[in-house]
Automatic annotation (TrEMBL):
InterPro entries: AraC-type_N, Homeodomain-like_sf, HTH_AraC, Tscrpt_reg_AraC-type_HTH. This is Transcriptional regulator, AraC family. It comes from the Bacteria. Pfam families: Arabinose_bd, HTH_18. The lineage of its organism: Bacteria, Pseudomonadati, Pseudomonadota, Alphaproteobacteria, Hyphomicrobiales. Coiled coil: none annotated. One of its GO terms (molecular function) is DNA-binding transcription factor activity. Keywords: DNA-binding, Transcription, Transcription regulation. Residues 238-335 form the HTH araC/xylS-type domain.
Length: 335
């Protein structure tokens, strides 16, 4: 069975700022080439399509090389080739979370012109803050990616997903705010005075020094091992999704999920409402992403996929898929 994290998708709007940054590096034809080689539709035809982890990884790996900027235009100064390798070399022998974060801050403060990182260590919590040196437009994808990189590196060093208390961003809440839950295992807020990520106290335990071979593997797979988050300790809605995926969504209902979460069905319904969702919406989102994965693999007919995700006919699946994504199933077929 596939990993539920790899199965997850985000809206195409989520990567819109990234594509805007890339368009400053290349012509429209070159950008469409990047997208085509990564399995995306052309930019003009993306609409409200969903984006998979595999597509994000491929686009990152292509764009970082061909733009000769490992942050692909997301910051005012290009981040030259091998910068990520040097960062990993810098942090891989850190023995504690504060030590690793200090090295992370020192590294990026040598490279970024318009922003400065600092650390706020209260003993029980430690916050990595991204402070603007002057008022300027904010690159939302850039802020997300660099904060997520800090979390990914710490999790790599710890050998587990490091707990996060909170994440905040210095921009208004976007229409695609729910996508940030796929990225960060914590509550995410917006319209803050600066962007920041706060780690919890038990992460101050000793970290595991990583070998050169492990470093090279992390680089080769980047950003696969850190861009999406695991679901096991997460907001309630993603814990339910994880349960449905692992236990079989066809047979599991609200009562089963509530039992797994050690709460009453009424309490679970209330918790999901607090996350801005419902049990049925979670199940539909899982079915949507399972269908997208199968469509992109291109090995099964639409009729087969419709049956696998619980529809009695391809026509019913087509209507539901259009409602879920704003696009037809054929849009997700490989070119």
């Amino acid at each position: 069975m596939s990993d539920p994290v790899n199965l997850a998708t985000v809206s195409s709007q989520f990567i819109g700022d990234w594509l805007d940054a890339l368009s400053g590096y290349c012509s429209e034809d070159e950008l469409d080439s990047f997208l085509y080689r990564s399995g995306f539709p052309s930019r003009s035809s993306q609409g409200t399509t969903r984006v998979t982890l595999d597509q994000i990884v491929r686009l990152y790996q292509i764009a970082a090389v061909e733009t000769e900027d490992e942050m692909m235009g997301l910051w005012s100064r290009p981040i030259r080739a091998r910068a990520l390798q040097h960062l990993l070399t810098t942090v891989r022998e850190a023995s504690s979370l504060p030590s690793a974060l200090f090295r992370f801050v020192t590294f990026w403060n040598l490279l970024l012109d318009d922003y400065q990182f600092d650390l706020e260590d209260k003993g029980d919590l430690i916050t990595l803050r991204l402070m603007s040196k002057e008022r300027q437009s904010i690159q939302r994808f850039g802020h997300m990616l660099i904060l997520k990189l800090s979390h990914g590196l710490l999790s790599w060093l710890a050998g587990r997903e490091v707990p996060v208390r909170a994440v905040q961003f210095a921009f208004d809440c976007p229409d695609f705010a729910e996508d940030y839950s796929i990225i960060f295992p914590a509550s995410v807020s917006f319209n803050a005075s600066f962007s920041a990520i706060t780690f919890e106290p038990d992460t101050s335990a000793h970290l595991t020094p990583r070998s050169k071979a492990e470093l090279l593997q992390f680089l080769t797979r980047a950003p696969r091992d850190w861009i999406f988050t695991a679901f096991h300790e997460h907001k309630q809605s993603l814990r339910v999704r994880d349960f449905l995926f692992r236990s079989g969504w066809e047979q599991c209902g609200l009562i089963d999920a509530a039992k797994e979460m050690n709460m009453t069905p009424r309490t679970l319904m209330r918790r999901l409402e607090e996350d801005g969702t419902s049990f049925q919406a979670i199940k539909d989102g899982l079915r949507r992403d399972m269908a997208i994965r199968s469509l992109r693999n291109g090995r099964k007919s639409i009729e087969q996929i419709s049956q696998e995700v619980g529809f009695s006919s391809a026509a019913n699946f087509h209507r539901a898929f259009l409602r879920w994504t704003g696009a037809t199933p054929s849009t997700y077929r490989p070119s």
